[in-house]
Each structure stands twice: as structure tokens, then as C-alpha cells.
UniProtKB/TrEMBL annotation, chain A:
Pfam families: ATP-synt_A. Keywords: ATP synthesis, Cell membrane, CF(0), Hydrogen ion transport, Ion transport, Membrane, Transmembrane, Transmembrane helix, Transport. Belongs to the ATPase A chain family. It is a multi-pass membrane protein. This is ATP synthase subunit a. SUPFAM superfamilies: F1F0 ATP synthase subunit A. The chain crosses the membrane at residues 33-53, 91-115, 127-147, 159-183, 203-225.
TrEMBL record, chain B:
The record marks E58 as: Reversibly protonated during proton transport. Belongs to the ATPase C chain family. Signal peptide: none annotated. The keyword Membrane applies. Residues 9-71 form the V-ATPase proteolipid subunit C-like domain. This is ATP synthase subunit c. It comes from the Bacteria.
């Protein structure tokens, strides 16, 4: 008994509702609803429901409201306000939105495992697609640039010239600072994508060990020992699922934290905060 | 050399980049714990920077992993 191990199959995007491509100025725009879109819509719906229930603002929070308040408190009181300071208040909604979206998309891939229905695999992590994470990273990057130009005008060049630097060093440092600045969206996108992809691939491989070693164990004789390996792999899958939950939350937090740090650099440019 | 086997060897070599990330994470968390045990009252405030440092350190390992996966499957 054998079966093909295809760890990358779970990341395949396929269409759920086929919509004919729309032609906009020569570009064919395919608006079909894919499994990625479905998971994003599920994440958006869950966020809306959670926040609608938690923003009723009763004095003694219930369970749902406590979850919403803890999540908001995480962004406000442990991230944005300590890093940016009181100038950071206008940026809390942006950081909170990105945090919640990434968190729910990450968690959706681990928790909403409905398996296959109607011949299609429904478990999908949108953040395990480079296109999705790159869009989020580019959005953050461009927001930082636009906010920096609005806040500082032409003074944004100070971002690449650290204060108190000798003139001779400027020639060396500016290209280095520029490259590290331009590499930000790349690293932001790759970090989230790689973490999600890597975690799910490892889970798939240990899951396939369960089936393979179990199949070997069924052949009888000394091969019955295969069941031991199968059981060990199964416990490993359980542990990895827990680890994936931690990674899903942590990566969402890290994405928000890096967005905050990048915003801080342009908001408090030259203030040495 | 057969291109497929060269790809497989390359993927294996690429995962070596994760050695550095592992060592870096060990240093990071070890030093954080050391500092946190010496001054527990200051530990909470630095946790954000711990996770930021973790993300920046880990990203190097993740890049190595992505390169390995690309070589293996793409």
C-alpha cells in the first residue's frame, strides 16, 4: 500500500465560484472566488462578529468582550503606545486591523480544519501564499512612506542619514540604509509566508508518517513495530498543532510589531524617541 | 551531475542556513532569561523587543527554509 506524499498540495488555490474574467482597459481581471478568498471572507466575518459583540461597551465585560478588549489592549498598551508614544494614537486602527486579519487568517488554517467536502480540500491558510503576505507587506511599506512624507515632507531623507554622522560616512551609509529600507517589505512578506508554509509542511509530513508506518505495521510479523512509530508520529502531530497555534499568534503579533517600529521611525523622525 | 540530484543536494545544503538561526535564538532567549531573572520587574517591558528580535533572527532561518523548499518542489 502506498500513496503519494505531496506536501505542497494543501497550498493549491482552486476556484470555488467561477466568474468570467472582466476586461478593464486590456487587463483581464479574474474575480473568481477561490478557496483563499473563502478563508479570507471567513476571517473577516469572524473579526466583524467578535468586534461587534465586544464593542458594546458594558462596564463589566463578558467573555466575548474580554477577548476583544485583551486583543485591543495588546496592540494599544503593549505595542503602539510604548513604541511610538502618544503620537501613535492615530495609527492604532491600522496596526490593529493588520494584526486581526493576519491572526485570523493564520488561525483559520489551523483551527478551521473541515477536511474535504464535495471533492475539494477546504482547509487553507491564505497567509501561506506569498501573494497575500506580499500584498500586506507592500501595504504597510507604502503606508509608512506616505505617512512619512505627510509628516516630514522633504525631511524624510533623514531616515537614511542617521544624525551626528560625519560627512565622509554619508557616502557609505546612505546606500546601506537605502537597501535595508527597501528590503523591509521583502523580509516582512517572506517571514510570514515562510513560517506558515514551513509549519504546515512539517505537519503534513508527520501526518503522512502516521499513515505510512501504520500501513507497514498492518503487514504483520516484525513490521508490527511500525505501529510504535505511527503512534509517536501521531503524538508529534498533536504537539506540532499546538506549536502552530503559538506560531500563528506570534507571527501576527510580530507583523504588527514590525509595522509599529517602521511607523515609529517616520512619525518620530529626528525626535530621537 | 544529474540536475535532480543536484537540486536535492542543494536543498539539503540550503537548510544549513537554519543552524545560525537556531544558535541565534538560543543566545537571544538565553540572554533574555538571564536578564529577566536578575531584574524580574523590568522583564515585562522588554518582552516586545524579545519577540521583535526573535522575528528578525528567525527570518534568516526562514529564508534558508524557503530556498530549500523552492529547490525541492519548485
Amino acid at each position: 500500500m502506498s500513496f503519494a506524499i505531496e506536501p505542497m498540495e494543501q497550498f493549491m488555490v482552486h476556484k470555488v465560484v467561477d466568474i468570467a474574467p472582466i476586461n478593464i482597459g486590456g487587463f483581464m481581471l479574474d474575480m473568481s472566488i477561490t478557496n483563499s478568498t473563502v478563508m479570507m471572507l471567513v476571517a473577516a466575518t469572524l473579526i466583524s462578529i467578535l468586534l461587534a459583540f465586544s464593542s458594546r461597551g458594558s462596564l463589566v465585560p463578558g467573555r466575548v468582550q474580554a477577548v476583544g478588549e485583551i486583543l485591543f489592549d495588546l496592540i494599544d498598551n503593549t505595542l503602539v503606545t510604548p513604541i511610538i508614544g502618544h503620537n501613535g494614537k492615530p495609527y492604532i486602527p491600522f496596526v490593529f486591523t493588520i494584526f486581526m486579519l493576519v491572526l485570523f487568517m493564520n488561525l483559520g488554517g489551523v483551527l478551521l480544519s473541515v477536511g474535504s467536502l464535495g471533492g475539494q480540500e477546504w482547509t487553507f491558510t491564505p497567509t501561506a501564499q506569498l501573494a497575500v503576505t506580499a500584498t500586506l507587506a507592500l501595504l504597510t511599506f507604502l503606508s509608512v512612506i506616505v505617512i512619512g512624507i505627510i509628516k516630514n515632507g522633504f525631511g524624510i531623507y533623514k531616515l537614511f542619514v542617521p544624525s551626528g554622522m560625519p560627512l565622509a560616512m554619508v557616502i557609505v551609509m546612505v546606500p546601506i540604509e537605502l537597501i535595508s529600507f527597501l528590503a523591509r517589505p521583502l523580509t516582512l512578506a517572506m517571514r510570514l509566508f515562510g513560517n506558515m508554509l514551513g509549519g504546515h509542511v512539517v505537519m503534513y509530513i508527520f501526518g503522512s508518517f502516521v499513515v505510512m508506518l501504520g500501513a507497514i505495521g498492518l503487514t504483520g510479523g516484525i513490521a508490527t513495530l511500525g505501529f510504535v512509530g505511527s503512534a509517536l508520529s501521531l503524538s508529534m502531530v498533536v504537539v506540532l498543532t499546538g506549536l502552530e497555534l503559538v506560531v500563528a499568534g506570534l507571527q501576527a503579533f510580530v507583523f504588527a510589531a514590525l509595522a509599529t517600529v517602521y511607523l515609529n521611525e517616520v512619525v518620530n523622525l529626528g525626535h530621537g524617541h | 551531475m544529474d540536475p535532480t540530484s543536484a537540486k536535492l543536494i542543494g536543498a539539503g545544503l540550503a537548510t544549513m542556513g537554519m543552524i545560525g538561526a537556531g544558535a541565534g535564538l538560543g543566545i537571544l532567549f538565553g540572554n533574555y532569561l538571564q536578564a529577566a531573572i536578575r531584574n524580574p520587574s523590568a522583564a515585562g517591558g522588554e518582552r516586545v523587543w524579545l519577540f521583535l528580535g526573535m522575528a528578525l533572527t528567525e527570518s534568516m532561518g526562514i529564508f534558508a527554509l524557503v530556498v530549500a523548499l523552492l529547490l525541492r518542489y519548485a
